[in-house]
Design goal:
The protein is mainly beta and about 350 residues long. The chain has five helices and 17 strands. Strands 1, 2, 4, 6, 7, 9, 10 and 11 form an eight-stranded mixed beta sheet that branches. Strands 12, 13, 14, 15, 16 and 17 form a six-stranded antiparallel beta sheet that branches. The protein is elongated, with a radius of gyration of 24 Å.
Length: about 350
């Protein structure tokens, strides 16, 4: 999947123009459809009632405007690198909301979809067919894969078998001409709902699917279509402590669970080495400034990430052997790539 230019965060609530707290919103002209099969180019096959043994998909259709226009999606910035909406899903039974709503979930949207008047998205998808990419952070830097409906399958939201109502709302926290957030009554909103029959026999399958779809989203989010350009422009390092043979041996030794397919030292214009010191101005370690970009295979899947190297200070002016200090996968899963595209 190519990295998208736009994102949508979506909220699931009540159909109408007043949210569960009684706050009015600015209505977006359009409708949301639901189906047990993924939508294609129209809303055929839509329905308003589902059972917990069915998969569920959604389609948003706007009238006269693109998603970007209707929801007043902001231009990108460093803090918000992608435009987005906000997503909240709430479960209701006999007119009462159960548990707490699932909020602050973002749904990744391609540039084409953002400039379109329609959008197909997952609600309770088959893990093998899931396409929507969710995150609970607005900048998509972490928290990928938490599909809101699957996350609400617990005893707080479904205390017993029976008939429930799932309320869905798309909205965006719009801003005024001074780039200040509007009052809630000016936020663009589109809402809808459907009936849901919950059966306790389906709990195990739903929980299994939750784990599978979360992993599928994490594997496919921001996936590389080809190796980044840095792999075709490696730096030429002449330092005897960081020769290609030594770096290759370090990666193999310190990352034993990975099969390194390709690696390069990035271009770097400053000094190759810097010393980190403690509060007493004593050396802690000496680190190799250029990052090592690696393409690797692990558990049958290929990824692209970063590695840094350093030498720990051993005292007496001496440093230990060069070793891996940090990998990008220690903070979040590295972005995936098809193994046959690592060339």
């Amino acid at each position: 999947m190519k990295q998208p230019t736009y994102i949508i965060c979506v909220l699931f609530v009540l159909f109408g123009f007043i949210n569960k707290n009684g706050t009015k919103h600015s209505a977006v002209t359009g409708k949301v459809f639901f189906s047990s099969k993924p939508f294609t180019s129209d809303n055929s096959g839509s329905k308003k009632s589902f059972s917990s043994n069915e998969f569920i998909y959604g389609r948003l259709e706007l009238t006269g405007q693109s998603i970007k226009q209707a929801f007043k999606i902001r231009e990108v910035s460093r803090a918000l690198p992608y435009p987005f909406l906000v997503y909240d899903l709430s479960i209701w039974k006999n007119g009462e909301e159960l548990g707490t709503g699932s909020s602050n979930n973002c749904l990744l949207l391609s540039n084409e979809d953002a400039n379109s008047s329609s959008l197909n998205f997952d609600v309770l998808p088959d893990p093998s067919k899931s396409k929507s990419i969710f995150s609970f952070l607005q900048d998509f830097s972490a928290g990928l894969g938490f599909v809101p409906f699957y996350q609400t399958v617990d005893q707080n939201h479904f205390p017993e078998a029976g008939n429930y109502k799932i309320k869905i709302k798309f909205f965006y926290r719009s801003v005024n001409a001074w780039d200040k957030e509007d009052d809630q009554d000016k936020w663009p909103v589109l809402e809808d709902e459907f009936d849901f029959t919950f059966k306790e026999d389906d709990i195990a399958t739903l929980q299994k699917n939750k784990l599978a779809v979360t992993q599928a989203i994490r594997d496919n989010a921001f996936r590389y279509e080809k190796l980044p350009d840095v792999f075709s422009k490696p730096a030429k390092i002449t330092d005897p402590k960081a020769t290609p043979d030594k770096i290759a041996a370090i990666l193999k030794r310190d990352l034993p669970h990975r099969t390194i397919l390709k690696w390069v030292v990035e271009q770097y214009n400053g000094p190759l080495w810097s010393v980190s010191k403690d509060d007493y101005n004593l050396p802690k370690y000496r680190y190799f400034n250029p990052h090592i970009h690696v393409a690797y295979k692990m558990d049958g899947k290929c990824h692209v990430g970063l590695v840094t190297l350093r030498e720990n200070y051993e005292g007496g002016g001496n440093y230990g052997p060069l070793e891996v200090a940090y990998t990008s996968a220690s903070e979040k899963q590295d972005r995936g790539i098809d193994c046959d595209k690592v060339k």
